[in-house]
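Researcher: We plan to redesign the surface later, but first we want a full-length starting point. Tokens attached.
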């Protein structure tokens, strides 16, 4: 018997529930052959049948069942060659959907989740500003109420995939006269609204994954506000927590991802002098420890909203990737400095935030951003120190001062 009265993150799935979910996958595949069905039609049918995120409520892409049942769904669909648009809409999928689910109204969920899942509407994250990155709560982009609309002015930066996005996850300052964390409000902004200007920013890889975004008198209907006025920090925390878990989660299979690439290069190299074998083994062990730690963190996350374990996953994965691709460059020698496939100066339409990979030379350059995006390694260490190890917190001189009174350059 399958009920929708389950607690998705704490209840263990029953055998009946697993059978029920897998029967739905069979039915979906029988009625929509992945090879012959247009991608959006297939994903739309998957959403409608409750297999987008099984722990989401019925009618919103889920079945209200324990989240653990998602893994068998993904495995089976992947095996049958079913399409996914995660890379095209990674921010929508990994961050937008959980944020809308946790803080959105029924109307917002109905309007936003389906086209997000099918990839019809791409999402970006508009948090960072030139003067607010690690200190996100210090942001300055303002939203001023005007009837049942808000008027937004300011600048965001490093907005991944903003150039192809329909919606942006936007944190604004609505009250400058209270301490910084309390004066924020969160919106979903239409990136095609008048007054939104997106300009590409080029990275070390040559690609322009991210952008500057300027807002000049952009009007957002109040119906696109997530949660209460002034509750923006709480909503942003949901987004940041799931972002870190997503970036940190990496590959689930043993010896997959970056360490697999390093091993492949090592095996191919006829002359193994010059590169320390122990260095490779240490990275292999580190990858395995990180993978198992991340699996455990994932299970803990299922016991509730992701907590500081997302920071553990993000920190270890980002730092390991940098060291692994440095080893890859040492293994490649001079070849590591060439770009046989070209050093492409393009703005990609998809970004795999969840996993690095591909050409080791590009991955080496991209791995630098890994320890910055979603919060730098220093910030992850601060979170771990304070929230896991219980160390004294950093001095925060501006904590109780109205944002407008805090000196800034
Ligand atoms: C590839 C990539 C993609 C990104 N995509 C997005 C996106 O889609 N949307 C978005 O909003 N942002 C995005 N970002 C921005 C990212 O979140 C910020 O760059 C990051 O939070 C750091 O902020 P900052 O660049 O302003 O650096 P700062 O906060 O100015 O930090 C500068 C240096 O000081 C250190 N530092 C700062 N404060 C402390 C402290 N308290 N203790 C110790 N050290 C500290 C930092 O670790 C860093 O080394 C992206 C960044 C990258 C690299």
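Model: Full-length starting sequence:
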């Amino acid at each position: 018997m399958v009920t929708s009265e389950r607690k998705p993150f704490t209840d263990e799935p029953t055998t009946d529930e697993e059978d029920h979910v897998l029967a739905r996958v069979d039915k979906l595949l029988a009625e929509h052959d992945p090879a012959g069905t247009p991608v959006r039609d297939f994903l739309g049918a998957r959403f409608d049948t409750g297999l987008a995120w099984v722990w989401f409520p019925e009618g919103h892409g889920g079945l209200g069942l324990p989240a653990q049942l998602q893994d068998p769904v993904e495995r089976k669909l992947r095996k049958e060659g079913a399409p996914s648009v995660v890379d095209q809409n990674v921010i929508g999928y990994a961050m937008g959907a959980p944020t809308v689910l946790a803080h959105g109204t029924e109307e917002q969920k109905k309007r936003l989740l389906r086209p997000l899942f099918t990839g019809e509407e791409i999402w970006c994250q508009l948090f960072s500003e030139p003067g607010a990155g690690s200190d996100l709560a210090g942001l300055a982009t303002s939203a001023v109420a005007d009837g049942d609309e808000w008027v937004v002015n300011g600048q965001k930066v490093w907005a991944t995939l903003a150039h192809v996005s329909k919606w942006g996850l936007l944190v604004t300052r609505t009250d400058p006269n209270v301490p910084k964390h309390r004066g924020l409000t969160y919106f979903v902004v239409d990136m095609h609204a008048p007054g939104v200007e997106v300009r590409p920013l080029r990275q070390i890889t040559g690609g322009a994954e991210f952008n500057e975004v300027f807002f000049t008198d952009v009007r957002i209907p109040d119906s696109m506000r997530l949660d209460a006025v002034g509750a923006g920090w709480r909503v942003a925390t949901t987004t940041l927590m799931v972002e870190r878990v997503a970036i940190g989660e990496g590959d689930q299979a043993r010896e997959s991802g970056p360490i697999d690439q390093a091993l492949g290069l090592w095996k191919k190299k006829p002359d193994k002098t010059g590169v320390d074998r122990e260095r490779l083994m240490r990275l292999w062990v580190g990858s395995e420890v990180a993978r198992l730690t991340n699996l455990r963190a994932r299970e803990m996350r299922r016991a509730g909203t992701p907590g500081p374990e997302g920071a553990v996953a993000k920190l270890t994965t980002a730092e390991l990737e940098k060291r692994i691709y440095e080893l890859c460059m040492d293994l490649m020698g001079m070849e590591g400095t060439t770009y046989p496939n070209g050093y492409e100066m393009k703005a990609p339409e998809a970004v795999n935030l969840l996993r690095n990979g591909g050409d080791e030379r590009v991955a080496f350059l991209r791995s630098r951003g890994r320890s910055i995006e979603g919060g730098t390694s220093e910030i992850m260490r601060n979170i771990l120190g304070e929230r896991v190890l219980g160390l004294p917190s950093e001095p925060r001189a501006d904590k109780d001062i109205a944002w407008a009174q805090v000196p800034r350059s």
